[in-house]
Design a protein that fits this description.
The complex is a heterodimer. Chain A is an alpha/beta fold. Chain A is built from eleven helices and twelve strands. The N and C termini of chain A lie far apart (47 Å). The chains are: A alpha/beta, B alpha/beta.
Chain lengths: 329, 293
């Protein structure tokens, strides 16, 4: 067996930058100060903005150590006693690792527990499949009673603190890592709607979630240079999808493309395809995401995107090929 | 005079009822219901647990979690006797419109949480213990596990955490019948036998629990063990009780025998069982629970 030689020097890893998770924790901290029954449980995962819970709110913060089954079970026990519980770990460890606890200890009893997962998609790029979280949308959206959020920026993440608190129901929020620029600063938005028409367009609508909203905006810029007006919809609530609002937007387009940093099987694109079939929508739909494979490529998130067709040229190429094969303008 | 005579009669009725319920629908875990029988009768009908059958969510109740959810068939007759729902409901076990399924479900009056998948009860119990302590309440949290259930790793995550937190209001009881579904525990005469647990008490002692061991079929030992439950404040330790039992206790056909985990006797087997324990008596003939033992 030959060992491949690295074709580029390693890039320095990301420094701590105040990110969407921190905007969420800061907003949640404001609420937690007014409600002593709001509890945060961590499985040995931290954040500078989490420290204010640790330092200032005794009885409202626990760490169970690296024991996610215990974290969800404990959250269940506390929720059955009237607490509103947030659990926190790296995204795979509040989803795939504890799927049965999520199913039985949270969803089946319809308890007010919010799983917070940091590092959606390939956010933990160089950490390999153990830390990549590209199947969580699929396995979480199948759980009855669960609401799933996938914010694209810190403004949305901050708003989800209040929204999740008011919902008092089973929820999962998948955050990206820090360093993602905000999109919606200063926008007047109703986050209860579950989606945002981030950019208006006429020719094709790109529906994206999480980090891929940023990618969709770049793709839209590239298409604009060719005279194609692409709209971008940020679908940040993946379950339940606001079908009425989404379909009213999509009705204006002759082509729809979904973009997700996630396996195609059962993900956001699949959810849209289900809606299309169930509602008799026949607009051509292209799903772009990760194919049926694990990713071991190193070099960073952009390398993964490049090798998976999720970089801007790759996305444009897929849209072009599809349009040509389908005879779409 | 036998001071536990009425509890023995009730336990006998529970065994009769469990067999009757299982035979009616040809389903249900008889042998596990028989091993936990005296313990549940003592807890609910012997005045150990605090509860109000008229208000199953009464704030002052102790929390009891049947982590070995397959024991539901043995819990329901006890809850019915305690007054949580009419005894007649037992005759519709698992039937259309019934609330009594094979595994204990949270909608049943007197049942705290959904169980049936093993290894969930103890982590949940730690959350309840913590929440009750935070609220300054003195309610106790009981969690009954099967010994085979201890193969599930989540229990050990919970035990580590419970010992670390020192939950004095948590009582973890293991129905130590030395059998799982297929295999035996701590005796190896077949390749079906899974990992043993001994020394079980030492394991939990090392995790920071106070450990007690009883004969789980002896009312004397059960009441002695639980006499000081509300005086444990200051110990800084959760309590772990090894309740030594026989799976299928009371029926010679299945007592400590393999292959009766989820099997209902029929034909000559059933006749033999009925000859040993009889059909359920009229519950009205049983005395009302005494205040203390």
């Amino acid at each position: 067996m030959t060992v491949p030689v690295a074709d580029a020097p390693p890039q320095p890893s990301t420094k701590f930058i105040y990110g969407m998770r921190d905007q969420f924790f800061d907003a949640l901290y404001e609420i937690a100060q007014t409600d002593r029954d709001l509890v945060l449980i961590s499985a040995d995962n931290g954040a500078p903005t989490m420290d204010q819970f640790v330092d200032n709110l005794p009885g409202q913060f626990y760490t169970v150590g690296i024991a996610e089954q215990q974290m969800i079970g404990m959250a269940c026990g506390m929720a059955t006693e009237g607490k509103m519980v947030y659990t926190y770990a790296i995204a795979p460890f509040v989803t795939t690792r504890v799927h049965e606890q999520n199913k039985l200890d949270i969803c089946a009893m319809n308890l007010p527990i919010v799983n917070l997962g940091v590092g959606a998609g390939y956010a933990y790029d160089i950490m390999g499949p153990t830390h990549h979280t590209v199947e969580d949308i699929t396995i979480m959206r199948v759980l009855p009673n669960l609401t799933v959020f996938s914010p694209a920026d810190g403004v949305t993440a901050g708003a989800l603190a209040e929204i999740s608190y008011r919902l008092r129901s089973p929820q999962y929020i998948r955050f990206d890592r820090s360093g993602i620029p905000d999109i919606y600063t200063g926008w007047d938005l109703d986050f209860e709607e579950g989606l945002i028409e981030t950019r208006r367009g006429a020719d094709v609508c790109l529906v994206a979630t999480g980090i891929m909203v940023h990618q969709a905006l770049e793709v839209a810029d590239a298409l604009a240079e060719r005279g194609v007006q692409a709209a971008v919809v940020d679908l940040f609530r993946l379950k339940p999808i606001n079908e009425q609002k989404l379909l009213s937007i999509l009705a204006r387009f002759s082509k729809v493309v979904t973009l997700e940093e996630h396996l195609l099987a059962g993900g956001m694109g699949s959810a849209l395809a289900e809606i299309f079939v169930d509602r008799g929508v026949t607009t051509p739909l292209l799903r772009i995401g990760q194919n049926d494979r694990f990713v071991f490529e190193l070099g960073g998130r952009e390398v993964i995107w490049e090798k998976s067709g999720l970089d801007v040229p790759g996305i444009l190429r897929q849209i072009d090929d599809w349009s040509r094969e389908r005879g779409l303008a | 005079m036998d001071r536990f005579a009425d509890l023995r009669a009730k336990a006998h009725w529970v065994r009769q009822k469990v067999l009757d319920m299982a035979v009616r629908v040809h389903s249900g875990h008889i042998s596990t219901a028989y091993s936990q029988c005296e313990l549940l009768v003592a807890l609910y009908l012997g005045g150990i647990l605090r509860y109000d059958p008229a208000d199953d969510l009464w704030d002052g109740r102790d929390r009891f979690i049947l982590s070995k959810g397959q024991g539901g068939i043995g819990l329901y007759p006890v809850l019915a006797q305690a007054g949580f729902f009419p005894v007649e409901h037992l005759d519709h076990f698992t039937g259309r419109g019934s609330h009594l399924g094979v595994h204990a479900e949270w909608q049943i009056p007197g049942v705290e949480v959904l169980t049936g998948s093993l290894g969930h009860g103890l982590p949940i119990a730690t959350g309840k213990a913590q929440a009750l302590l935070n609220d300054g309440k003195d309610n106790l949290v009981f969690c009954l596990l099967g010994d085979g259930e201890l193969h599930e790793g989540s229990n050990w995550e919970a035990a580590l955490f419970a010992g670390h937190q020192g939950y004095e209001n948590l009582i973890c009881i293991v129905d130590r019948n030395n059998q799982a579904t297929l295999g035996k525990l701590d005796s190896y005469d077949s390749r079906r036998d899974g990992p043993g647990l001994n020394p079980l008490g030492d394991k939990f002692r090392a995790f920071g629990f106070e450990v007690r061991e009883i004969d789980g079929h002896s009312f004397e030992e059960i009441f002695d063990c639980f006499a000081d439950l509300r005086d444990r404040r200051g110990t800084g330790k959760p309590l772990f009780v090894v309740s030594n039992t026989l799976k299928g206790k009371g029926l010679s056909l299945m007592e400590d025998q393999r292959m009766w985990h989820y099997r209902v006797p029929a034909g000559a087997d059933l006749e033999r069982c009925l000859a040993e324990i009889g059909s359920p008596a009229d519950v009205a003939e049983l005395s009302t629970p005494s205040a203390s033992y």
